[in-house]
Design goal:
single chain; about 250 residues; mainly alpha; globular; disordered N terminus; disordered C terminus
């Protein structure tokens, strides 16, 4: 439950903001009352997400909020955010819920709709995380058609921003080593590659400089930055039960 709640807040926040844009109410705000974290997720985020996902399936790339196109190309993480939002909702839905079969079809439609949209770094991480959630739930082949999944296997790759020969970052700040590691590890969990690349990226992150101090590595384009890497206790392999979750920038 904790993992699902974190995913909801991390990836559904932009969907929630779009949902609020649809609710035109002038009622005065109520006095603040305490609500648990889960109550906020279940009572506020999830219903908005479901509504938006249904609209997306119906309107596709024509979806707009208050006259502003959603798919205007500015958010290059959007396909991944949509994928993890839909996977989270689908995995949480009881199998005997009458909406379950409907949302399996929605998932297939939305995946095919967004597979060719611009999607990079964090968006790639979100998307492959969504696929791994579906895989673990036994829903992957029902929720994503074979052609779309074959395309995703090619495009959801850390090599888009890390040189696979020398493992230098390509025009990205150093915290993106963490994102690349998360993607590589999830690719291994999906059976798309061995864990070798994840191990090499782990070694870069787990340098002496990262133990209690900022990581200082040089990106290929000459960029240096303080990394937002999470504490690492032991080597991560494809057999570990939980996917890596880098800190969002």
């Amino acid at each position: 439950m904790a993992r699902l709640n974190v995913l909801r807040v991390a990836a559904l926040s932009s969907l929630l903001l779009m949902g609020r844009a649809m609710a035109e109410t002038k009622a005065a705000p109520a006095s603040p009352t305490y609500r648990s974290y889960n109550e906020i997720v279940q009572g506020e985020i999830a219903p908005h997400a479901e509504q938006l996902l249904a609209l997306l399936a119906k309107q596709g790339h024509d979806l707009a909020m208050q006259g502003v196109p959603v798919f205007d190309g500015r958010d290059t993480f959007l396909p991944g955010k949509i994928a993890v939002a839909l996977a989270d909702f689908l995995v949480s839905l009881p199998r005997d819920d009458p909406r379950f079969s409907e949302y399996l079809l929605v998932s297939r439609k939305v995946a095919a709709l967004t597979v060719d949209d611009a999607n990079d770094t964090w968006g790639v991480y979100y998307y492959i995380l969504a696929l791994d959630m579906l895989r673990q739930a036994g829903l992957l082949t029902d929720a994503v058609d074979g052609l779309t999944l074959a395309k995703l296997r090619v495009t959801l790759d850390w090599r888009a921003f890390v040189d696979s020969d020398d493992y230098h970052l390509i025009d990205h700040a150093n915290n993106y080593y963490c994102v690349a590691f998360g993607i590589a590890r999830l690719r291994a969990r999906m059976g798309w590659e061995s864990g070798a690349a994840a191990g090499k990226l782990f070694d870069i992150i787990d340098t002496p400089e990262t133990t209690g101090s900022p990581m200082k590595l040089t990106a290929k384009a000459g960029t240096t930055a303080t990394a937002c890497c999470w504490p690492v206790k032991s080597r991560i392999t494809s057999s570990n039960p939980a996917p890596a979750r880098p800190q969002r920038r």
